[in-house]
Design brief:
single chain; mainly alpha; globular
Amino acid sequence: MNRYQYFLKRLLLVIPTFIGITIACFSLTQFVPGGPIDQYMARMQGAQGEMASESTVSEEQKEALRKEFGFDKPIVVQYWDWLWHDRMGMMRNSYKYTNKKAWELIVERFPVSLIFGVTGFVITYLVCIPLGIFKAIKDGSFLDISSSIIVFIGYSIPAFAFGMLLKMLLSGTQDWGWDWFPLSGFRSDHYMDLTPWGQVKDVIHHMFLPVLCYMIGNFALLTILMKNSLLEEINKDYVRTVLARGGSVQRAIWGHALRNSLIPIATGFGGILTLMFAGNVLIEKVFEIPGMGRLSLEAIVSRDYAVFMALISVTSVLALLGNILTDFLYVIIDPRINFKKS
């Protein structure tokens, strides 16, 4: 199977895989207790000053709600309506934000997660790849060992816990801390009154700590992966051949071993599509960033399945396309790679 046939096959497989993922998630939302009807009744009863119990709502009211939400139809019909008529759920009204459709909420939050996700992803790779190369070249040295200790200390701290620690130290939440960075949010209240350059600085000021927390979660894994991959390539016969023919160490490493060592690193590049859309749930929650990750958490907690399923549909497509992007990067890094039938 040549590469064109392989990528075409992978693209075609996106469709049945997407349908399988969304059917599974859609079916689960039908059986999880405390669904949209229960949430709606609780809000309605709370507005009336009553205890939120099913006994205060008649069967007729429950049936009317089921019909309004479309839950009175067979699950196959419900799924088809969601997939086709509601454009993968994008055109459905949010159960929590009744005056907004799912796509409107996604469009509002998307730029925030785009900036957060892409910035964190790019900076992580720009730092970790050179550091991993440096550690491989200086393997066993004092700098290699000391940097490994620092890397693994950072890796041992969960990203959300590190975020809370940074807020205490650098956002003025404690008397002994420094008030250097904003406590929460994506931008200041006076953001629109700033100059274009002032707006850029304001966003950077707000995103510095969240991006730093994101890097901590991936720092050790990517750095050590880069180091071990390069060390493995350096010890292979083709590198020894270059050295035996009079080639310099720099040429053997930078001209031959480095390119092949990037193949495992390329695996993570496919995840950028999902990351820039979905964001990071825990970090966005800690810093109260109005991004896609926080929106997905709010949709799950409030049983807003209209928004939740819309998010699932988009992230599923992006994840599947990201896997294809990873294979494409493999070919760019090493043209010798050939996809054959198993």
